[in-house]
Amino acid sequence: MRTVSRTRILPVSTQLGIILSVPEATPFTAVLKFAAEEFRVPPDTSAIITNDGIGINPAQTAGNVFLKHGSELRIIPRDRVGC
Amino acid sequence: MAAKIVHMLPVVKKQVKQHVKVDDPGPLGFLLGIPSTKTGVTTVVGLGALVGLDGTALQQEAEDTLLHLPAGIRLSGVAYTSEKPPTPDYVSSQCLRFVQAGLKDVIVTNEWIVQHIQVDPTTESEGDAQLSKVFVYDSASGSATTVDVREVEDSILPSTTLLLRLQGQLSLEFEYNPGEDDDMFKAIEEGFSNLQEKIATPATIFHLMDSNVLLRQHETVDATSLPLSYQDPCHRLLQFVARPDTEELPKKGGSKDSKGRSSTQDVLSMQLLFQQTGLEAIAMLPSCVPLIHWEKRNFHNVCLPVSINATAYIHRDDPVSRVPQLMVEAVSRQLRGMETCLNMHFQGGQFCVPTAYHFLAPGMPHLLTAVYPSSLLDDKLEWYRKDLHQRFSLPTDRPLLRRQNAYVFPEDQHGDIYLTNTHEGLPPSGVKGDVTVVQGRYTYHHYMQDRMNDSGWGCAYRSLQTICSWFNLQGYTDRPVPTHREIQQALVDVGDKPLKFVGSRKWIGSIEVSTCLNQLLGVTSRIMCVNSGADLGGKGRELALHFQTQGTPIMIGGGVLAHTILGVDFSDQTGQIKFLVLDPHYEGGEDLSVIQGKGWCGWKSVDFWDKTTFYNLCLPQRPDII
């Protein structure tokens, strides 16, 4: 039996969030990709953080992240800096 | 007879207060003091708190406390709480009980300094309403008299004492037969006992490094050809040490010591030597004809290197003759510490090599020493550190006694490649608000260092390196600062970047910084987002709170530039704010005057940030470990 988790992901700017249901074993990098697609933003210039603003290490399963940080998350644009 | 006085450092009050339990009166711990031979006045420098649950086994606690202190700091007395008011008679009766508990053997002087703190269990608060009085108790006559306590500055210790440092190599050999542990423990005990005896003989010489001075215990004849007598004040020894020509080392710190310390501690480094010729050496040999007994069998012979690394404090005016005395005491304490360590960590035929480390924790006026077994990593020694944190009233939420936290003596600090704490010595920002800055130490990482040309792409990597250096220097990790490649590899390992990212010159930002901190160091970070650089002006309180509670450097990324924020000067009355910014885009050499003078490390107003772009900030959080 596959266990599935539901997560709500909110962007910083608008109020409209999305709700994603993913199998718990899903790598969190995939959750980011799904969420970015839903918001129509490139996944590599987006990041997901918790509601309290804690950064999430993507090298974990979705189930692990929701367990540690809850299922209310935020999607933010990444800064890319170099010069 | 003139009224006796006792000097006390302000830190003692804080330490004592930490251990007062209003509803459980009893002994709190030992008062630690450094006596002055010249003036006869003892300076109380700290409290060695009891960690045992019921205040019994005072003698054992005393010994445990002593083993972690440099020689020269002795157990000068006791502090305790009581519901009764502080009267000489009551104090005498309490002290008699301590005498009966065996404390007379560990408090070497007859004059005990006793602090009586009266507590009222009926009061809810534990404020300064407690009455505290200090007495001198004569353990020979059993009488107690009040004494004048003069509070002196914490900085009095480095300015009135010398720190002696002793290094030397001994070895311990014993037979080990698996299964015969009792015999082995006896052999170890005998071995250490022999070393203790050896140290105390006249053949033991203490050589003052970089000089011609050789000191010996119990010397009455001034045998040295130097213009130095054993009765001279020991600070004269400093003159005999040949100073190396100070090369042009990278300038550290600004012109003023930002902490306002009046003086740094003078250190005398000594070496342990044994005389091999002469009457003293001959006296060590057995005075009989040797008989040879030959027994042929197999056995394990354990040869343990005993590296002596001991310290002691001495008043500058104490006579030179006290130096070798203290050195012997220092070695003796260290040998006892090593014996305890060896016995404690012997497991299944495996012996550890006990190694001594010294620590100067923030807020502690003196060094602490701990002997750690080579066989165990810091993670396995948390229980031991917890005890020490409690015993010496250290905060229990941060690492202070890990091997990484070990004190580096000034003479061991080679010309560092990286500059440390480049913000120290900067003039004020001009805001005249509340200044909160990064706590502890970090090294400045910037473009072109480590023969790595990362100009134009590496700024976030460099900011991350600065942050990693902070976690390394504060003892949270012993992992060295990661290279660009290691950072990139970490991002590939977590699945955030494709394989071809490693070796590329691709930009990263605050999210990648926080991911790497987690992946490489296990550190969690808080991400702060602002829509425009101008909005940072409103983040003063939040940033100030971060520096107060976490004290870690902040990485900020936005509008193609990465920087490190080291502090804020924020006035909540005027709303004015300035940011202490460390710029990783600097491409020059480690020249502090340029770095500070040209603003590569300096105070910036909110206009420094681009109004037209959003910013993300990575605020690393301290892991809760010791």
Automatic annotation (TrEMBL), chain A:
Q: What does this protein do?
A: Ubiquitin-like modifier which can be covalently attached via an isopeptide bond to lysine residues of substrate proteins as a monomer or a lysine-linked polymer. The so-called ufmylation, requires the UFM1-activating E1 enzyme UBA5, the UFM1-conjugating E2 enzyme UFC1, and the UFM1-ligase E3 enzyme UFL1. Ufmylation is involved in various processes, such as ribosome recycling, response to DNA damage, transcription or reticulophagy (also called ER-phagy) induced in response to endoplasmic reticulum stress.
Gene Ontology biological process terms, A to Z: protein ufmylation
Q: Tell me which UniProt keywords the record has, alphabetically.
A: Isopeptide bond, Ubl conjugation pathway
Q: What species was this sequence derived from?
A: Branchiostoma floridae (Florida lancelet)
* InterPro entries from the UniProt entry: Ubiquitin-like_domsf, UFM1
Q: Give the protein family.
A: Belongs to the UFM1 family.
PANTHER family linked to this entry: UBIQUITIN-FOLD MODIFIER 1
Binding partners and assembly: Interacts with UBA5. Interacts with UFC1.
Protein name (Swiss-Prot/TrEMBL): Ubiquitin-fold modifier 1
Pfam families named among the record's database cross-references: Ufm1
Automatic annotation (TrEMBL), chain B:
> In what residue span(s) does the UFSP2 second domain sit?
191-413
Does this UniProt record's set of keywords contain Protein transport? Answer: no
**Signal peptide positions (record):** none
Look up the domain of life of the source: Eukaryota
Pfam families per UniProt:
Peptidase_C78, UfSP2_N
Q: Which family does it belong to?
A: Belongs to the peptidase C78 family.
Any coiled-coil regions, as ranges: none
Q: Which organism is it from?
A: Branchiostoma floridae
**What cellular-component terms does GO give this entry?**
endoplasmic reticulum; nucleus
Single annotated GO MF: deUFMylase activity
* Protein name, as recorded: Ufm1-specific protease 2
Q: Which UniProt keywords apply?
A: Hydrolase, Protease, Thiol protease, Ubl conjugation pathway
Hydrolase keyword on record: yes
- UFSP1/2/DUB catalytic domain: which residues? 434-618
Its GO biological process terms? proteolysis
